[in-house]
Amino acid sequence: MKNISIVLFAFIAEFIFSKIGLMFAIPFGFASSIWPAAGISLGIYLLFGRPALIGVFFGYLLAVYHSGMAFDLETWALPVALCVCSLLQLIITKRIIFKYIKLPVETSKLSKLVKFLLIIGPLSCLVASALGASILYVVNDLNYQEAIFTWAIWWVGDFTGVLFSHL
């Protein structure tokens, strides 16, 4: 019952905060300059562990669903791949935090707080943005400048979401 509650909580949070982030999406609709779901889902995953990943996965997919979308592999392959990029970002971030940060973070020591914020912010947000922009570059036949722009916007969106949700 506890795991079901975690999945449901992560699902609802991811759905709501992904919908908010989608309001700031750039053309192509795959990157947003503000993505609060990145920070909220990281916090939920750090607190509750693996069951949160299931809720995050399905919450994101429901958020990107729109009326008229076909339920076939061709339609859903890209959203699923981009969601997996975000899940990998969560998993890698958690592993880096547990390896290099002594928890709980001593917020009274500036050096430890800065180290923590650098890991959860700029460093961890490279994962989904780089993988996702690379996938979009190949699948959507973006030119180099569009791919770099998408990567940068995605990274900024994840970074702002992570930064503001953990302050």
From TrEMBL:
It comes from the Bacteria. InterPro entries: MASE1. It holds the Pfam family MASE1. It is a multi-pass membrane protein. Keywords: Cell membrane, Membrane, Transmembrane, Transmembrane helix. Residues 9-163 form the MASE1 domain. The chain crosses the membrane at residues 6-30, 42-63, 75-92, 113-136, 148-165. The keyword Lipoprotein does not apply. Its main location: membrane. It is found in: Cell membrane. This is MASE1 domain-containing protein. It comes from Psychrosphaera algicola.
